[in-house]
Write a structure and sequence with these properties.
mainly alpha; three-stranded mixed β-sheet
Length: 370
Amino acid sequence: MQKLLTRIFSRLMKSWSWVLLILLTIGIKWASWYPEWVEKNYSLGVYPWISRAQRTLFGWIPFSIGDLFYAFLVLVVLFQTWKFFRLLFRKKLSRPFFKEALQQGIFFVLFIYVFFNLLWGLNYNRVGVADQLGLQMKTYSRDDLDTLTSALHSKLNSYAALVSGSQRDTFNQKRTLFTSAASAYKEASVTYPFIAYTPKSIKPSLFSYLGNYLGFQGYYNPFSGEGQVNTTIPRFLEPFVTTHEIAHQVGYARENEANFVAFLACQQYESPAFKYSMYFDMYLYAVGELSRRDSTQARQYQNRVHPQVKKDQQEYRDFLYRHRNPVEGIVTWGYGHFLRANNQPAGKRSYNEVVAWLIAYYKKYGVGKL
């Protein structure tokens, strides 16, 4: 393996490669300062072709190619770490070794940065769905938040009464779950053509059980164009998580936007199970934000949720409690910094910012459209 890695880096790290990577890094940083340019030329120009090509290449494969790629990267890191400590204990570390390691490290970081942004990451800097829908994103009041929570509370209770156990059990077949999510986008694209999704490439994560301890429910791989879903989470969460990951695939990188696009996809879909999953998440975000401003009012909403909602909330809390561990906190901290570095200053709380999008949406279209 050592010889293979050395051969790969020696071929890649030519002088022209360094120049190209540095120029591309500068160009990407320049483009990120101009959201309108990114929106027109990348998000609505180049990226749809890139994403469709990726999903065409890898979507038909039943397992995640992107997960295998990540596993390979982990093995490379572990191997290089083992190599370093072996040389350290043998007292064979030298100045040329450190020089070569530093060069390879910088080259690797630049390489990943450039391809991450060219294949998907520039979408963090687009104008986005607010502009496409003409939404006015403004600071919202406590009353605005109460109106939203009340509407979502009503929707959630109504769909809780409509979803049967057999409907949830259909998601045991992941093909049914993923096909239904793609159908939701197909129907929503009639109203919102900018979220058209074809071909599909959504798959179970190979690291689902590990994900329970690291704190992720799904993720998008920009290098393969695949959306991965942790299929060991509670069933009622899976539809919304799946549509959230598809939102990333169609070009909405920021987490608040992906949540909102998933809301649009589920909202018009005929499946009560998908709508319940979506309203469950949206209600939790809204009532959580309301609790920060008016905990008494938030408790009143919680006291009036449907018994099935209470049961699912308890199942969700138990699920999170069973998988608590010290490593999750470290991963969450690191992921929060990743989000901040990619135009999401709120870090992990970026997910909660979907509340502002929902308020802007109902102010334009009416509460009845939620």
